[in-house]
Amino acid sequence: MSQTSIGKVSEDRKDTPIDVAQSLVNSPFSNTATVELSYPVYPMGSTRAWCSVAGCVLLQLCSLGVVTSVGVFQEFYINTWLNHFTPSEIGWITGMVLSFTFCLGIIGGKLYDAGYGRVTLVGGSLLFSFSLFMLSLTQRNKYYQVFLSHALGIGLGSSLILTPTTIVVAHHFQSRKAVPLGILGASGSLGVIIYSIMLNQLIHFKLGFPWAIRIAAFISTGAFILGNILISIPPLPPRPQETRVSNYREYLNWPFVLTMIGSGFLAQLGLYFPLSYGQLFALRHGISPQVAFYSIAITEFAGMIGKIFPNYLSDLYGPVNVMIGCLTFAGIMSIALLGCGNLVGFIVFSILYGFCIDACISLYLLTVIAIAPRQADLGKALGISFIPVGISSIIGNPVLGAILGNTVLVWWKGITFAALCIFSGIFIQLIGRYIYLRKSRKSGGENTWKL
């Protein structure tokens, strides 16, 4: 990979940010030479760039804060609100909302690439808020009502928010994207901390389920309004004229496919087990509700650090290398959950595992951005990369619910399944890394281990 220092540019020629952006095609699978700048390029200026980061943070904080608090909803639905249904049946609700959020991200990405970024963000915000209000009106043990509002409505709304907000930040920062994207990723963790504590307290000790959800809906609506005001949609990088078929064929290269299978599907299938069933695990092992209800918040607080510090390391050592290390530690911690049935052990597990899981999710997106065939089509690349994450989400909770059982939950089976998925994903990702680096060297790139 050739590097061009900004100091080598002729003084009598001043390139605009858009001119510089035209040279950014960061993949050995493209015929265009790569130019890596030594400082950030802001197509609309640094002020608008960081204001857009703040706006995207607000949107992801509220949407992912609700969506990823699956442990709160899973435990409450199983024990109270939908207690006439099995954990596997309830798992379809929490699994579908995660699946739509990630799997349908390709729709938001395609709309953004087509020039409808603003409309997509506003539409997703409206649908999300409306569905959250509808969830507050559902009745106890009315499965279809909860499924329509929670799984379909909230899932579709969040899918129109997640991918476009990621693209906005990626396009505002034409180089050194890791830190702003890490901040954006940390907003989801902060949202889970806020919403999990708030919902647990309001549902179990204060106002009950309907008003707890209404309060969450009012807060989300206000944040969505402010966030959409702060966001500026940057101009799209120019792309060459190509056929539709050839555009999609670019993503059928082995490194991209193996990354989606290994890190996007198998690893994510195992990583979500503690998030979905961690709170229920704590309650069933005699840990007090006052502590168990904070388990998700503890996990995500550690995850905030996990989405920033490893992202910084990825600029130094490569996102794939750092992600493989975090996945390995997460797999070890999954097995360690078998011995964390006491208060101290469970808190330590929540902290260490939270750091790993959020780092892996954030680094997966950075990996996709790094190996995407064209930077001008980041919306398409991110949208495609969310599909395996969505598939793992939709089947993960029902499958884990069936493995655990209906009445007597057999925890070692679910934990073993999660760990096997993570380690299988690591193995496949290592193969993809090897193929990518070999292809890069053959195409004239640097002989480096960093990816």
Automatic annotation (TrEMBL):
Subcellular location: Membrane
Stored InterPro entries: MFS, MFS_dom, MFS_trans_sf, Proton-linked_MCT
Principal location listed in the UniProt entry: membrane
Entry GO MF terms: transmembrane transporter activity
Highest taxon of the lineage: Eukaryota
Residue ranges crossing the lipid bilayer per the database entry: 49-70, 90-107, 119-137, 143-169, 181-199, 211-231, 251-271, 291-309, 316-337, 343-369, 381-404, 410-432
Gene Ontology CC entries for this record: membrane
Domain Major facilitator superfamily (MFS) profile: 256-451
Name this polypeptide is given: Major facilitator superfamily (MFS) profile domain-containing protein
Organism of origin: Sphaerobolus stellatus (strain SS14)
